[in-house]
Amino acid sequence: MTYSETSVPAAGKLAAEERSFDTIHDRSQFGSAKWANQWDEFSPRVQGDGLVSLWTADMDFRAPEPVIARLREAVDHGIYGYTKRDPAHYDIVKSWFERRHGWSVGVETLLPAPAIMPSVAAILRTFTQPGDGVIVQAPVYSPYFQVIRDNGRNLLINRLKLVNGAYELDLDDFERQAASGARAFLLCNPHNPAGKAWTREELECLDALCERYGILVISDDIHCDIRLNDRPHIVYSSISDGAAARSFICTAPTKTFNLAGVPAATLSVADPKRREELFQVMQASFMLNANYFGRLALEIAYTSGDPWLEALTPYVRENVRLVCDVAASGLPGVLPMRPDASFLVWLDARELDARVDGVHRFFVERAGVNLYDGRVYGPGGEGFIRLNVGCPRSVLAQALERMTSALRSL
Ligand SMILES: Cc1ncc(COP(=O)(O)O)c(C=O)c1O
């Protein structure tokens, strides 16, 4: 089944207030990392006061109303004991991926997981040995570096090639890394920070090399659902039986529905032996009890969240357009990369970076806008900044206005 053949409920069925992503919510009171506790490796003293905060990857929107209602019921119930994921969740997850992405995943391949990164760590610890090489494609989501290094594996960086303002694979370099002792490849699909959805052809090229060098593929699909153009999300394991056999697909509703604080994830492991082995390791690590709220949020989001997502997507798309328009007219030296998916915009600010001696610090100090410093994303991120457009348009407009004024006064 393809996405267009499905009967996704229309956005019009949402209550008007729920469709309004324009409302500004004060997020400072509940310890929000994005608003109350701002820091990163390069700017440890960035503080929230007066800053417009467009950095870490959650959104400033309320979750879908059915999710909130269910969580409210659970809060009011008042007993927050141990929970397990319901076996019915496998059908719910299958149905979600079938209707949103045309991926017909076998329910028997699915495993419950607490979140994406603990799962990546568990997979690495189960199927690779200390010292084994693990490939990542930089610039990339920085905890990838950490999960590889902190688990004693050897980080192998395959730099993406920047061609005419867009990223392309460097397959020659990938092969060099593959031949240098790689045992696993941690794929970000779609890619964070650039929001690039890898094509079937690109994934097939990577898979041919992974097959040749006996490399396992851990695919992190957390950003797959917010699709901003008609490029489909291709799930790695759907490209061939061989790709399915050597891959681990990691999914979660947390980015899609803004549920990072109530996490739950689902893995698909097609190879039965590896699935059993991973299950045993996760069990031995006590990873299988579900988060009480995360379990409920996943269930309701995947069953009732389509109208909300249908309303969110054009809003995010319009925010991306605003960034591109303002950058073209008022941010000389800042070139946005249009994402295929996600609510993140990767800005090539290398020219400005050189002019102002550090573009991230410049926008924090001179504009009062906190973006993510591209250096966090590793080699190739220098001089870039990542802007999170998952916020009310007026907040984004204010940030862009401040950035424009700061540049004007240079
Ligand atoms: C690509 C990517 N993977 C994983 C995560 C985090 O996932 P989790 O919180 O489920 O570990 C993020 C969060 O920003 C992300 O961008």
From TrEMBL:
GO terms for molecular function: cysteine-S-conjugate beta-lyase activity; pyridoxal phosphate binding; transaminase activity. It holds the Pfam family Aminotran_1_2. Gene3D superfamilies: Aspartate Aminotransferase, domain 1, Type I PLP-dependent aspartate aminotransferase-like (Major domain). Keywords: Aminotransferase, Lyase, Pyridoxal phosphate, Transferase. It comes from the Bacteria. The keyword Transferase applies. Residues 87-402 form the Aminotransferase class I/classII large domain. Its cofactor is pyridoxal 5'-phosphate. Its EC number is 4.4.1.13. InterPro entries: Aminotransferase_I/II_large, C-S_lyase_PatB-like, Class-II_PLP-Dep_Aminotrans, PyrdxlP-dep_Trfase, PyrdxlP-dep_Trfase_major, PyrdxlP-dep_Trfase_small. CDD domains: AAT_like. NCBIfam families: C_S_lyase_PatB. Belongs to the class-II pyridoxal-phosphate-dependent aminotransferase family. MalY/PatB cystathionine beta-lyase subfamily. This is cysteine-S-conjugate beta-lyase. It comes from Rhizobium pisi.
